[in-house]
Amino acid sequence: MEVKNPQVAVLCNNEVFELLKKTQENTKLIGGMNHSTILYEVNKYLEQRACAEQNPNKIREFLIKLKHMPINLSKKEKLMLVNDPPDSVLRLSLGIKDFYDRLSEPETEMLLFATKKFSGEFQIITKQELVEEEEEEEENN
Amino acid sequence: MFIVSEFEEVVKVQPTHLEDDQMSRIIIHLNSMLANKVVMDVGLCLSLFDILEIGDSIIYPSEGAYFSKVRFRFVVFRPFVEEILIGKVKSSSSDGAVLTTGFFEDIFVPAANMQNPSRFDTKDKVWVWEYDNCGDTVELHMDIGETVRFRVVSEQFVDTHPGVDSGLLDTGEIATSKSKSPYSIVGTVREPGLGVIGWWTDL
């Protein structure tokens, strides 16, 4: 066997989760594969992570939102925000290098609001917040 | 924490499977060959991602089987250095703690990477963070089975190919090299926000 390219792309947890679910179904169809244990173990791990409640549309929406923000985040930082959406400033600072130098306070607030919304923490958004958000979006555009 | 890697392999299909669908034979072969295996400097292979190309099949003289060159991609577990991951405590010793994700168990947090100041409780066999709360020392335990957030500091690949320690070394050396896993990760929890998840949720 030959390794052609050790890293073609990076996958987020949700993509792996969906892919493995499909593979498990295929395994039943084809049969004869002895890698069910590893599929089960990875699935069990991912089930308990944030990715189990995410879907591709939600992730795309979140990434577009991040793109419109005046904050430059690296690919890896975005990946961590998607895989493990922070719910506090402390956790935001873990995933982003030189966090306190790079982000001002309002930017931190904005990012935290976006990640919290992404992880589904605000199920009920008040009207005022909606208006504010629209204004923000308009400003960014 | 997951990546996609591209490989190439010559897949042999035995004559007994000649009437089977070629595609499913190849999928079975690749998954059986690579899933749950570590490839040097690539990572822990999990499952087939897709097949890019299947070359012409060749039958060699005096062989009933046919061989086809297949280019394919595989999902691989390979967290990058600096990545924050979540795992569970598998075991603790005075050297440090071993963490597991359920499918990968070679994550080691050495004693020097524990929260400061920490000590190892020899009676209960757990690591204890002596958190200083305005003069009062609060003891925070890192029990077995607790969910822990940690940062990847470094990774190591060791060639455990049978040829590497084929009796040329001393018996003592073989014993140490045998216990080594092909792919291991060193982690740290020595940062605010890292460690047992429950330590930080009340903030």
From TrEMBL, chain A:
Q: What Pfam families does the database record attribute to this sequence?
A: RNA_pol_Rpb4
**One biological process term in Gene Ontology:** transcription initiation at RNA polymerase III promoter
Described purpose of this protein according to its UniProt entry: Accessory protein for the calcitonin gene-related peptide (CGRP) receptor. It modulates CGRP responsiveness in a variety of tissues. DNA-dependent RNA polymerase catalyzes the transcription of DNA into RNA using the four ribonucleoside triphosphates as substrates. Specific peripheric component of RNA polymerase III (Pol III) which synthesizes small non-coding RNAs including 5S rRNA, snRNAs, tRNAs and miRNAs from at least 500 distinct genomic loci. With POLR3H/RPC8 forms a mobile stalk that protrudes from Pol III core and functions primarily in transcription initiation. Pol III plays a key role in sensing and limiting infection by intracellular bacteria and DNA viruses.
Q: Which UniProt keywords apply?
A: DNA-directed RNA polymerase, Nucleus, Transcription
- Kindly give the SUPFAM superfamilies that the UniProt entry links to this protein: HRDC-like
Give the location in the cell.
Answer: Nucleus
Could you say which protein family the record assigns here? Belongs to the eukaryotic RPC9 RNA polymerase subunit family.
- Assembly and binders: Component of the RNA polymerase III complex consisting of 17 subunits: a ten-subunit horseshoe-shaped catalytic core composed of POLR3A/RPC1, POLR3B/RPC2, POLR1C/RPAC1, POLR1D/RPAC2, POLR3K/RPC10, POLR2E/RPABC1, POLR2F/RPABC2, POLR2H/RPABC3, POLR2K/RPABC4 and POLR2L/RPABC5; a mobile stalk composed of two subunits POLR3H/RPC8 and CRCP/RPC9, protruding from the core and functioning primarily in transcription initiation; and additional subunits homologous to general transcription factors of the RNA polymerase II machinery, POLR3C/RPC3-POLR3F/RPC6-POLR3G/RPC7 heterotrimer required for transcription initiation and POLR3D/RPC4-POLR3E/RPC5 heterodimer involved in both transcription initiation and termination.
Q: Which GO terms describe its molecular function?
A: nucleotide binding
Q: What is its main location?
A: nucleus
Species of provenance: Acyrthosiphon pisum (Pea aphid)
**Identification of the protein by name:** DNA-directed RNA polymerase III subunit RPC9
* Domain RNA polymerase Rpb4/RPC9 core per the UniProt entry, residue ranges: 1-119
Task: Please indicate which superkingdom the organism of origin belongs to.
Answer: Eukaryota
Q: Which GO terms describe its cellular component?
A: RNA polymerase III complex
TrEMBL record, chain B:
Domain of life of the source: Eukaryota
Q: Where is the RNA polymerase III subunit Rpc25 domain?
A: 83-200
Write the signal peptide boundaries.
Answer: none
Primary location recorded for the protein, binned into one broad class:
nucleus
User: Coiled-coil intervals in this record?
Assistant: none
Q: Which UniProt keywords apply?
A: DNA-directed RNA polymerase, Nucleus, Transcription
Does the keyword section mention Glycoprotein? Answer: no
One of the GO biological process terms: transcription initiation at RNA polymerase III promoter
- Report the subcellular localization: Nucleus
Q: Looking at the Swiss-Prot or TrEMBL record, what is one Pfam family this protein matches?
A: RNA_pol_Rbc25
Q: Gene Ontology terms, cellular component aspect? A: RNA polymerase III complex
Domain (RNA polymerase Rpb7-like N-terminal) spans 8-64
Q: Which InterPro entries match?
A: NA-bd_OB-fold (IPR012340), RNA_pol_III_Rbc25 (IPR013238), RNA_pol_Rpb7-like_N_sf (IPR036898), Rpb7-like (IPR045113), Rpb7-like_N (IPR005576)
Q: Which family would the database say this protein is a member of? A: Belongs to the eukaryotic RPB7/RPC8 RNA polymerase subunit family.
PANTHER family attached to this UniProt entry: DNA-DIRECTED RNA POLYMERASE II, III, DNA-DIRECTED RNA POLYMERASE III SUBUNIT RPC8
Name-wise, this protein is ACYPI002394 protein
